[in-house]
Design a protein that fits this description.
mainly beta; three-stranded antiparallel sheet; 16 strands
Length: 206
Amino acid sequence: MCFDGKDNDLDGNIDCADADCIIAQECASVDSGAIDHTPWIMLSAGMHATCALQGSGRVTCWGSGECDTCDIHAPQNPHTQQVAPDGEYTSIQMGYLHTCALTIEGEVECWGLNDKGQSAPPTTGGPWQSVTVGEYHTCALDWAGEIECWGNNATDQLNAPNGPWVSVTSGWDHVCALSEDGGVQCWGGDERDQVSATPTSTKFSS
């Protein structure tokens, strides 16, 4: 990304607190034809890193490099910065030390830490309409309303109940899904009543 030096409110930066996470570069210093000028449309933050998705489908990540296999190093230059696997993405989700994104074809691509299989999506199933990421697990919702999860199953967080579901979200070691009639069901870790205290008389909408 870059800025043109004109006096305007759009400086091309993504701001975190009082500092710029990604600093715009002078256009004259790079090949402007190679720069992706499309706006940022989604952000997701993990343990010590953040990823941003542009309207073009390109993903950029920055932050901690504490995990040698995580590909979450601060971008220095749009030509050399390590990004997600090649492809065009529609959404991005970060977990503890792994990241998953949904492609325009409805496939899930994950990268980063894979010690529990959290970055190894199933080779069957899909196409997927959404993906959600926990500490060491990942879940995806297909267009039939069914959920498939992979990775660590220490608290049975991979044992998704049958749908149809309209949305799914992951916590640290538990997962919750919203049904077509507005009901919520959760499964996995329950050390803080995050599963057992799920309201059953209230209906929600996505």
